[in-house]
Amino acid sequence: MTLTRERLTFMPSLRLLPDLEESIRQIPGVRAVSVVTDAQAHPTEIHVLASPGKPAKQVVRDVQSLAMAQFDIDVDHRIVSVVQIEDEPVAGGTDDTVIDLSEAGSAGATEVLEEVEAQARPMISEIGVRSTGSEIEVEVRLEFDGDTFVGIERGAAAASARPRLVAAATISALDELLGLPAAVESAAVVETGTHAVALVVITISVPRIGAQSLAGSAVIRGDETDAVARAVLSAVNRRLG
User: Fold this and answer.
1) CATH number at residue 142
2) Given CB 3.0 to 4.6 Å as the disulfide criterion, which of 30, 89, 144, 207 pairs with 122?
């Protein structure tokens, strides 16, 4: 089978409630939010990036209360996805890497960071996308320790479904390396400040412990498919380590 590499152009999801997005951003602890709507401006997905200061269920309840009180919108808790990411301080020690970028330009800083990220981690070697009418096939190839790992997922060609397909294909490629059942809980692209960020939540089933949720994020550098795959790797990095 010949893999045709193709850059995906994502059609923007409907976002017809900017005032609701802005109001949710004012909730204490919320750092970014994306509200996806249908053509009638009814919310179908609400993705929230928050600090871990309060339980995720409380964040969901805050979103529901705000939407009802200010906009008379009854939000189903099942459409609200909360990713909580803590900013971890960098400290000295055998498990930490301290990088001095004060003398580097922006391009040099990016190269240094990417080199550090590449250490002891699977790397994306290729992402292929094929369209077949109303469906697409996503193939993700990862390189790790001289070996190639491939994951393939097929699904609807709808723009809103593509981040999940890319995330699922990446998880499929990681299956052998993880050694544990894993699934994509949510995958989305949100706007935060001047950047667009890919956010994913992965659920891993750990024996004798149960389901564990892992969150990962990656700043989009022009290609959303690449950012979603990098976000998956970010989520599972510690587990692989």
Assistant:
1) 3.30.160.270
2) 144
Give the domain range for residue 195.
122-240
Where a domain ends, among 37, 62, 84?
Answer: 84
CB-neighbour burial class of residue 147 (10 A; exposed 0-12, middle 13-18, buried 19+): exposed
The helix/strand/coil state of 122 is coil
Secondary structure class of 41 (helix, strand, coil): coil
* Token code pair at residue 188: 């989305």
Residue 73 in any domain: the answer is yes
Question: What CATH number is associated with residue 50?
Answer: 3.30.300.30
pTM summary value? 0.57
Residues sharing a CB contact under 8 Å with residue 177, sequence separation 6 or more, in sequence order: 122, 144, 149, 240
Q: Which residue has the tokens 């089933």?
A: 205
How big is the chain, counted in residues?
241
